[in-house]
Amino acid sequence: MGQLLSDTSNNEDNGDLVSSATKYFMEIKAETKIISQETIHLIEFHLKKGNIQGANSVINDALKNIDNAPINVAVTGESGAGKSSFINALRGVEPEDQDAAEEGVTETTMMRTPYKHPKIKTLTLWDLPGIGTMNFPPKDYLEKVKFQEYDFFIIVSATRFTKLELDLAKAIIFMKKNYYFVRTKVDNDLQNEKKSKPRTFDGEKTLQQIRSYCVNTFTQNNMDEPQIFLISNRHLSDYDFPILMDTLIKDLPNQKRHNFMLSLPNITEAAIDRKHKIMQQYIWLEAFKDGLLATVPVVGMIRDDVEKLKEKLNHYRVLFGVDDESLQVMAKDSQVPVEQLRKITKSPYLLETKKEETLGELFLKYLEKFASASGGPLALGLYFRKTFYLQFIFLDTVTEDAKVLLRVTYSKN
Ligand SMILES: Nc1nc2c(ncn2[C@@H]2O[C@H](COP(=O)(O)OP(=O)(O)OP(=O)(O)O)[C@@H](O)[C@H]2O)c(=O)[nH]1
Ligand SMILES: [Mg+2]
């Protein structure tokens, strides 16, 4: 984040703005960018021409698009394949939670059922009946389940994929949508194998066997071997679940990546870091947009800023799963007392002021500390307002908290 502070160019120098924007976007990997290359070019184009208003409105539209673009995920598969469990895993809810997708051994999925993500309102996961149970040819099945509404399809199986599911995949491609084959319950397979062959058991080999067994069906049906993701809905940080998430993010259109990434459970430190990076991009865009129009640097902090910052911090805590409610759930799952979890995190105390001190004063103190750690006092005339630096500080704090909590609770599982 050092580069954000070192740039103190004044607002009228468009050359600096252009190079700063270009440099920032260049450093972000293509597969994690939240705005498209065309949008980046458009911003640069306006800036080069000195059309500040134009650049500002392009960023404004891009941010609105990121906030509002609906994401719809279709999850299909035969009864008992693990659809509900997969949906619950993606929504970060436990089966016994009130609005969890019902998991069970009986066939509970007869029609498509939408499940909204509890934190990301634009994300809906759709539980679809398996193609085998519907008795329709693929094209009709896709029409019935309203295929055009989804961003992609997850085809789930706890055994091998059926010929009908392979045909479904072909039909999905024909409709210009993406599909992903997901083989669930590999934890069960590994356990069974271990029981039956305790001496010669080799986990990697078993996984390889499951994979080639699945792939066989494709070659037998003259289809190219697709990537098959072997997962366990009970152990998300293991096997191919993290790779599946990376693949989904990479394949999504830029503007949908931000919310999808934020929706994902904190299963690994890499996943948390990814959330951090994606949120940083968003704040950066907001700050940059704001800075384009700011003619006078805002020196102090107004009460409105303070209120908004409070809201932001709380929002980040929820998104990163380090808010009070999440801590309670985590405490219950990991059997670590909630007070202990609170004690090892920093974000719950960020807004605690000492006697007589206002939040505004406290925030300025954070800024001073932050600035001196980054090598020097914050220069006036930054085109990023101070409130944005505070958002970066908050973001860093919740990220660190999420990692600390992951380490503590993971070691207990
Ligand atoms: N060990 C293990 N069990 C799983 C996994 N995924 C699902 N299960 C269990 O398998 C059973 C069926 O899972 P569901 O998620 O209800 O399957 P479904 O596809 O929604 O089934 P229907 O609603 O009947 O269509 C439940 O008891 C789950 O707890 C997994 O990855 N590993
Ligand atoms: Mg179900």
UniProtKB/TrEMBL annotation:
Keyword terms: GTP-binding, Hydrolase, Nucleotide-binding
Pfam families (alphabetical): IIGP
Top-rank taxon: Eukaryota
Coiled-coil residue windows: none
Gene3D superfamilies the record matches: P-loop containing nucleotide triphosphate hydrolases
Domain IRG-type G, chain residue ranges per copy: 69-251
Family: Belongs to the TRAFAC class dynamin-like GTPase superfamily. IRG family.
Protein name: Interferon-inducible GTPase 1-like
Name of the gene this protein is made from: LOC101994109
